Amino acid sequence: SSCPYAKGYFTIDDHYELCATAYGIEKDLVMTSIQDTINYYGGWDMEGTRIISTNGNVDPWSSLAIT
User: Fold this and answer.
1) Whole-prediction pTM
2) CA atoms of 19 and 14, how far apart (whole Å)
């Protein structure tokens, strides 16, 4: 795929740098926010109904989808 968001084009450190540069959000805040989100929604043990995880073959987040 020539999609710039396909897997392998950007590392997690690239994303942290983007957050810091573009939005002034440092890695520690990102990590804390991720953990808060996991805690709030239940992580891999999420309970709920009518939840859809859509993924494309170039979606860099597809490996995190609950299927």
Assistant:
1) 0.60
2) 9
45, two tokens: 């043990």
Query: Is residue 6 within 8 Å of 56, Cβ to Cβ?
Result: no
Record the tokens describing residue 56, joined without a space.
């494309």
Tokens representing 57? Answer: 């073959």
pLDDT in tens, 5-22: 666 677 889 889 999 999
What's the distance, CA 56 to chain centroid? Answer: 14
Q: How far is CA 51 from CA 25, 28, 30, 64, in A?
A: 29, 29, 24, 14
The residue type of 60 is P
DSSP string covering 11-67: -HHHHHHHIIIII---HHHHHHHHHHHHHHHTGGG---SS------TT-TTGGG---
